[in-house]
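INPUT
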Amino acid sequence: MNMMKRGDYILIIFLLLFAGVLFLHNMNNIQEKGTMVEIRFADEDPIYVSIDQNTTLDLSHGDLVNILCIEDEKVYMLESNCRDQLCVRRGEISLEGESIVCLPHRISIVILGTDKGDIDALSQ
Amino acid sequence: MPSANNIQRFTRLSLFVTMALVLSYMERFLPILPAFPGIKLGLANIITFIVLIMYSWKDAFFVLIARVTLLSFFSASGISFLYSMSGGLMSLMAMTFALKYLGNTFSLIGISVIGAFMHNTAQMLVLAAVLRSFFIPLSYYPILVLSAVLTGILTGYIVANLHRHLEKLGQS
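OUTPUT
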């Protein structure tokens, strides 16, 4: 690719470094098993559920069906009638900082660690 | 009264819109990675970029708006429309600026990477606004930046070659 200029290489290296630093920064949060599950729907107040209970939550709002399962300290979307099914295909999550998002239905699920205040401050 | 020039321009723009639509639509049949939702090649950006280079930002703007609006008819979802539109506009603005003022520093590939980066950055901000949370978008952002670099190089490489060949055609 002899058509590339020096500025291109600098830009690409800079962006890769930027992504790498952000990634490492985020990795510091994702290590331990989470303790709480934060469930948000649109701009409503989030619901908090402990991860160590086995339960099935119905997050449906009107025609928007979402069934979330918490099982053996793992969380997964059992069912959704959204268009892309990305939330169902996301599979199981169990570590602090991991998330499931159902964008068409504006639902997001994040696993929190013991230090809940920290993450809340970040998400404000 | 429409002049011959106008008719030519509209025909040309319609052809570009069609090509962009087909590329966007075809892209849906490529396998997606469930772990990384939202990562796309952004092939339609090839058309936006080539129009920007060869004609004007106004023409590119028209092609972009028409493509995103028409594509939303195929799959009606308010959020995906908001998503494509914000990303597309941000990317076009960045590329117009870079092409005008940073053309000596970056080749078309670099400018395409800038466009892809701004596109994904805009989408991250929309995601944050939709979910009312910065935590998820931020944890996803590094992957978006990485994918912007890779897809930006790919589309930039295609555009650079396409542009070279179209220039040759114009001369002969």
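end of record. Strands of chain A lie at 36-41, 47-50, 55-58, 66-71, 74-80, 99-102, 107-112.
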